[in-house]
Design brief:
By secondary structure, this protein is of the alpha+beta class. The chain contains eight helices and seven strands. A hairpin with a 2-residue loop joins strand 3 and strand 4. The longest helix has 20 residues.
C-alpha cells in the first residue's frame, strides 16, 4: 500500500525516527499518567474486537521498558478480549491524552493472562484498589514489540467535566450502567426472545481455499494449504499480474 499510494519514503522515515521496540522514559511517564486506553484484539480466525479500559492513573502499569500489565475488572461476563488473547496473543493498545499533551501512544505486543496472586508474587508493588469493582480478577501481561507516537493534529482538545454523580464500579444496576441506551433489550422483547448467542465456532469462508478448518485438525489444515497453493499456481499460469510469492512474500 505504501508503494501504491506513494508514501514509502515517508513511512521509512517514520519507522527510522519514531518507532521503538521498547518504552523509553518519556513513554513510561506518559503511560503512568493515563486513566484510559483503547484495546484491540483478534481471535484465531482474525475476527477483531475493540474495547475500552479505564481506571486510576497507573492502572496500566509499567513493569519495565518491555513489559506492561493491566488488571481485568469485573465486567459484563463476556470476556471477549481475554478470550481473544487466549487464542491469539497479539494485541494493540492506544493511549490518547485528550486533556493536556493532546498526543497519543501506540503499543503493540504479545499478551498473556496471569492470575493476580501469581503476578503479585513476582511484583508485590502492583497497585491494589479498594473499590470492589476495580479489584483485579486477572492481569494481562504485555511484552512490548512496537511503541510509537500517534500525532496530535486530529486529536480533539477536551475539558474535564465537573464531578457529578460518581460511577459505581462493578454495579449490576442497569440504570447506573447506562440502561438500554441503544434499545437492544427493547428489540429483543419485540422479537419475543433474546438475540441468537454468537456461535463459538463460526463459519469462515477462508477465501479460495474454502472454509477454514478447525484449529485441532492438522490434516485438514494441510489440505487447506494445498488447495490455496494450487489456486495460486493456477493464477500464475493464467498470467495474473502479481504472481504468487510464497505465504509471506
Amino acid at each position: 500500500m505504501q508503494r501504491r499510494l506513494g508514501t514509502a519514503e515517508r513511512a521509512d522515515r517514520f519507522y527510522g525516527e519514531q518507532m521503538l521496540d521498547h518504552l523509553n522514559e518519556r513513554m513510561r511517564e506518559f503511560i503512568g499518567r493515563q486513566e484510559m486506553f483503547f484495546l484491540a484484539t483478534a481471535d484465531r480466525h482474525g475476527e477483531c474486537d475493540n474495547s475500552f479500559r479505564a481506571g486510576p492513573p497507573g492502572f496500566l502499569h509499567v513493569i519495565d521498558e518491555r513489559t506492561l500489565v493491566y488488571p481485568e475488572y469485573r465486567g459484563n461476563g463476556v470476556h471477549a478480549s481475554l478470550g481473544n488473547i487466549q487464542e491469539n496473543p497479539h494485541l494493540g493498545i492506544l493511549l490518547v491524552d485528550f486533556f493536556q499533551a493532546r498526543i497519543g501512544l501506540h503499543v503493540n505486543g504479545r499478551a498473556e493472562v496471569v492470575e493476580d496472586a501469581e503476578l503479585r508474587s513476582v511484583h508485590p508493588d502492583l497497585p491494589s484498589d479498594s473499590v470492589p469493582g476495580r479489584r483485579a480478577l486477572v492481569w494481562v501481561r504485555v511484552t512490548v514489540e512496537e511503541a510509537y507516537i500517534h500525532c496530535a493534529k486530529h486529536i480533539p482538545h477536551l475539558q474535564r467535566a465537573p464531578k457529578g454523580t460518581p460511577r459505581d464500579w462493578g454495579t449490576d444496576d442497569q440504570r447506573r450502567k447506562g440502561g438500554d441506551f441503544f434499545g437492544a433489550a427493547e428489540e429483543a422483547r419485540r422479537r419475543g426472545g433474546p438475540a441468537v448467542r454468537p456461535s463459538r465456532e463460526r463459519a469462515h469462508t477462508g477465501g479460495p481455499g474454502g472454509p477454514v478448518p478447525p484449529s485441532d485438525d492438522p490434516a485438514a489444515w494441510r489440505a487447506h494449504a494445498e488447495r490455496l497453493l494450487a489456486k495460486a499456481r493456477q493464477r500464475r499460469e493464467e498470467g495474473e499480474r502479481t504472481p504468487f510469492r510464497g505465504w509471506f512474500g
